[in-house]
Design brief:
Oligomer: single chain
CATH superfamily of the largest domain: PG0816-like
Strand content: under 5%
Number of strands: 0
Order of helices and strands: HHHHHHH
Radius of gyration: 19 Å
Largest sheet: none
Helix content: 55-70%
Shape: elongated
Number of domains: 2
CATH architecture of the largest domain: Orthogonal Bundle
Number of helices: 7
CATH topology of the largest domain: Helicase, Ruva Protein, domain 3
């Protein structure tokens, strides 16, 4: 019974993170050790914050910050945005997620030039990366097609 209760406490954070990873970091979605470790950490942050006097909403905010730390910027989301915005007529919309997953490892050298922090999307380098990805995708499509 105690084991089941502990599992239930982690379900909210674990399921939230798993869903987030599937949507924004599909390359990490199968890493259950990551999900479990972060879910446990978030639950601990919530419990500790609540015991320290934070209201439930404040404790929840701190727990979510802990849960998603280092995951706010998504290479996959940016690549998907590039494909949707810049190659709208060339790629059927329903094929974009799978094509983005296919291209992501091939474009790692483009991403590696930048320091991809949680707030990277607000930096001037974000626009440069967007432009470089657009060019790299155009070259890929020209050479290999969809």
């Amino acid at each position: 019974m105690s084991r089941k209760k502990k599992h239930t406490e982690l379900d909210y954070y674990g399921l939230y993170l798993l869903n987030y990873l599937k949507e924004s970091h599909p390359d990490k979605a199968n890493d259950m050790a990551l999900v479990e470790e972060r879910a446990q950490r978030a639950a601990n942050v919530y419990d500790q914050s609540f015991r320290e006097g934070y209201p439930a909403a404040g404790a929840q905010e701190l727990a979510m910050k802990s849960l998603l730390e280092g995951l706010h910027f998504s290479k996959y989301d940016l690549l998907r945005d590039v494909l949707e915005s810049e190659f709208e007529g060339e790629l059927p919309g329903e094929e974009i997620p799978a094509f983005a997953r296919k291209l992501l490892p091939l474009l790692e050298n483009v991403f590696s030039i930048y320091e991809l922090t949680d707030d990277f999307a607000q930096s001037p380098e974000h626009d440069l990366l967007y432009t470089e990805l657009t060019g790299a995708v155009a070259l890929y499509l020209e050479e290999y097609g969809i």
